[in-house]
Amino acid sequence: MNEKITKRDEDFALWYTDIIKAADLIDYSSVKGSMIIRPYGYAIWENMVSVLDKMFKDTGHVNVQMPMFIPESLFNIEKEHVEGFAPEVALVTHGGSEKLEEPYIVRPTSEVLFCEHYKKIINSYRDLPLLYNQWCTIVRWEKTTRPFLRSREILWQEGHTMHSSEKEAREETLRMLKIYETFQKEYLATPVLTGLKTNKEKFAGAEETYTIEAMMYDGIALQNGTSHYFGQGFSKAFDIKFLNKENKQEYPYQTSWGVTTRMIGGLIMVHSDDLGLVLPPKIAPIKLVIIPIGDSKEVLDLANDLKVKLDEKNITNYIDNTDKSPGFKFAEAEVKGYPLRIEIGPRDLKEDCVTIVRRDTLEKIKVKKEDIIPEVEKLLISVQDNLYNSALKRRDEMIYEAYTLEEFENLVNKPGFILTSWCGEETCEENVREKYNLKSRCIPLNDKESNKPCTICKREGKYKLYYGKQY
Amino acid sequence: MNEKITKRDEDFALWYTDIIKAADLIDYSSVKGSMIIRPYGYAIWENMVSVLDKMFKDTGHVNVQMPMFIPESLFNIEKEHVEGFAPEVALVTHGGSEKLEEPYIVRPTSEVLFCEHYKKIINSYRDLPLLYNQWCTIVRWEKTTRPFLRSREILWQEGHTMHSSEKEAREETLRMLKIYETFQKEYLATPVLTGLKTNKEKFAGAEETYTIEAMMYDGIALQNGTSHYFGQGFSKAFDIKFLNKENKQEYPYQTSWGVTTRMIGGLIMVHSDDLGLVLPPKIAPIKLVIIPIGDSKEVLDLANDLKVKLDEKNITNYIDNTDKSPGFKFAEAEVKGYPLRIEIGPRDLKEDCVTIVRRDTLEKIKVKKEDIIPEVEKLLISVQDNLYNSALKRRDEMIYEAYTLEEFENLVNKPGFILTSWCGEETCEENVREKYNLKSRCIPLNDKESNKPCTICKREGKYKLYYGKQY
After folding, report:
1. Partner-chain residue, chosen from A67, A90, A93, that has the shortest CB–CB distance to B34
2. Pairing, β B288-292 against β B340-344
3. Fewer CB within a 10 Å sphere, N or C end of chain B?
């Protein structure tokens, strides 16, 4: 709590790690590239898991648990997949003091494990769809790491589903993308672009990769979740077949989709400020802190009384009755990003009032004692809405359009996204990356086609395409 | 579902794996010694996690997430600990195509990771207690494995707490043991012995290990949870110190405690029978299945109406409206261990009745339509109680006492536990293991002292001690 937080507009990267440290979200260990997620950080993840898990189950998905290791030969079955992941895997070579006959890969993702299992349990169209999800840890041996954003160990969920028709699998791919979008909007107060990744940027082994792309405060993109349509690629590689309704053998159609602890990084970089963390009420582990000023009986009685009433309403809260000064407690509440704090002081009490402070706007609101609970309920909704609307406004102001190379070149150094027209050729995308250090974000989901010439090469445009820098 | 289940009294080991397979709890993969936990098996684990996590949080514990790897040098800091675990660790030697400077151990347990972190965050008595828990997967390279009972990968929780006094840490050790005991009794309908492990059987690095010992149907023990008091052993090895209230540097006092997916194995071996799984209602993912007989409108309407009412009461249920025969559906409900099934047939309906069948006793109960929901609620409690009482009765009938070597030798081949008097010397315990292949289970928690001579060597007895075979 005593750590100084670098100003956000001065050094965004340093500000980010300062916030994470000051709010006690993580710690480092002697395990390079991994992080310890501390109780307050983990409580945010638990809230994310709890909401998403319910959304998955409400749409018919069930959880399973696969092994964390993958024998090398199993991993090598799907070619594109191997090529994509081989450079960043961790290898177990010894177990129980003996060298293993075959090295095991610590799972970087579990498609092949699911496929091996599916081959055994899928026989008929009656066995489909299989709507499986797994909450687990994966390992990708990244060279440079940043807390939550890029880590060697990642907490995530990976959905893996199998369907009897292409249509159904494609619907599933988009259904889960929509769930991610809704979750980001409703809970994380974060607007996202939804769209299709280009072939160059898609997942290793997928036919199509859909993405949700959030824009951070500094205008840089965070790919915050993906949903893949695999077609029959893995089914064929693993020889998974089912007897369809026409009594013929057919390869099933597959999807996978995932989100990770990276969402916590996004949450910080979208909403937080120079004073510390700012958390949307719907995902905040603690919705408010009650800070008694002085220790008169009247003040403490009201604090205790409020706590009981808030508990009854399931509004998570606590009374800060440590011996720190009120000013210190206010600052701490701001660092931790509690959406509201209630200050109970003798002066306010003379007027039968308390002061509620919003974390998002820092506005102080004097509230009559009898109105506190309804006011808290109203304010929690208001903070949630305001965070979303502010993020949306800021993002939209940083989305630009460029339909000529000149327009494009005038925008490449501005923070934000650039919407372009694209001929569909990888060479144009590659040129943009090499020359301007921008990567394609996505082809917008419900507004794919372009009737303008390609922004880069002037040939006929086929798709709309967003560009932007990325984390 | 079509798998034949071996008779329990014919071949218990085969019966156990048959049940697991028939009820779709797990599958095997090409990862030797690991298992795939299938949706129905994982749903049992999710229920266990949900109940225990609430019990932990209600007693002030918070969750964290540590790395899954441990650098070898960090693991080597506490000597007894290393010696206990070294023979069964898995080693990561390569990451990102390069050989690691130092091998990483895939965590077999996380004491050292917690201690490294504690050293950084503990300074004053104000920082204590730290009541941390972690839900994760650990790896122990076992030579022979059995689903749920002994696996190379284990899903578990590990609590790790730090305290400013020995008294408080000892209380925590027993508090968590008590929580495990309560969970086993109230939810898993499983009576357990609680007690202290002998020095020979305690956890590597602990001062004291407490255990809950359940007895399986075949009289063999399953150690189903442990709680360790570490004293200052790790604190000193890791040089963790805090400024106490007297302003002096002191080493904090530590505990750890854990339960694993092994509890699912215990659940099966305590309650299940020749027809399949039997699950206590409080932990069963599905409390009942509604089986319509025939497809008359009246039957289906009642089924749908019941489903709505059961859903409202949060009694998880589903209607089996597949095209299988009623007999097949009944058998399937038995294999899956749903605590109740409701059969709705035209004949019963003529009398305005349905038939409810209890899974534990297979008793069929004719119930008037208007009484179904209250009867279901009553029966769920009754099944839960009956399972506990049956298990308790069976266990108590298989606990024997032996206070002379002759009595002891007459009992060593009987299934069950033998309560003895013990001089406290490891040689006697070792003799029993070598000569009779029995291991000490525990010294009973609230009834430690013995005033009889040692059952084995006739010297003065100090403690009561249970012996038994173990999984």
Report:
1. A67
2. parallel
3. N
Contact between chains at A63 and B42 (C-beta distance less than 8 A)? yes
DSSP-derived 3-state class of residue B8: coil
Nearest to B135 by CA among B6, B258, B7, B305: B258
Q: A31 and B136 in contact by Cβ < 8 A?
A: no
Residues of chain A with C-beta less than 8 angstroms from the C-beta of B65: 36-37, 42, 45, 155
**CATH for B288-380 (1.10.3720.10, 3.40.50.800, 3.40.1280.10, 1.10.10.10):** 3.40.50.800
Taking CA atoms, what residue in A is nearest to B27? A117
pLDDT, tens only, A80-99: 888 888 889 999 999 998 99
Q: Which of B42, B45, B141 sits opposite A95 (nearest CB)?
A: B141
- Identify whether the C-beta of residue A335 lies closer than 8 Å to the C-beta of residue A1: yes
Note whether ipTM > 0.90 here: yes
C-alpha span between B284 and B278 (Å, rounded)? 9
A33 in Cβ contact with A151 (< 8 Å): yes
- The secondary structure of B341-406 as a DSSP string is EEEE-HHHHHTTEEEEEETTT--EEEEEGGGHHHHHHHHHHHHHHHHHHHHHHHHHHTEEEE-SHH
Topology of the domain comprising A288-383: Rossmann fold (3.40.50)
Tell me which of B65, B91, B125 to substitute to probe the interface with A (most A C-beta atoms closer than 10 Å).
B65
Residue-level length of chain A: 471
Superfamily (CATH H level) for B12-271: Bira Bifunctional Protein; Domain 2 (3.30.930.10)
How close does chain A come to B449, measured CA to CA in Å? 39
Minimal Cα–Cα distance from A241 to chain B, Å?
Answer: 18
Contact B104 A68 (CB under 8 A): no
**A240 near A111, Cβ under 8 Å?**
no
Residue B14 tokens, joined: 């085969």
Tell me which fold the domain B399-468 belongs to: Translation Initiation Factor IF3 (3.30.110)
Distances, alpha carbon A452 to alpha carbons A342, A431, A446, A455, B125, in Å: 55, 19, 17, 8, 68
Distance from C-alpha of A130 to C-alpha of B327, rounded to nearest angstrom: 26
Tokens standing for residue B309: 């009412």
Q: What pLDDT, on the 0 to 100 scale, is given for residue B83? A: 86
If you count residue pairs, one on A and one on B, with CB atoms under 8 Å apart, how many are there? 152
- Length of chain B, please? 471
Cβ-Cβ contacts under 8 Å, B71 against chain A:
30-31
Would you say residue A140 has pLDDT above 50? yes
Chain A residue numbers with beta carbons less than 8 Å from the beta carbon of B29 are 66-67, 113, 116-117
Contact between A421 and A464 (Cβ < 8 Å): yes
Q: How far apart are CA B243 and CA B250, in angstroms?
A: 6
The mean pLDDT value for A340-369 works out to 97
Question: What is the per-residue pLDDT across B131-142, written as a single tens digit (0 to 9) for each?
Answer: 999 999 999 999
Nearest 5 degrees, angle CA B137-CA A157-CA A28? 60
What is the spatial distance between Cα B354 and Cα B406, in angstroms, rounded to a whole number?
57
The DSSP bridge pattern shows strands A399-402 and A417-422 to be parallel
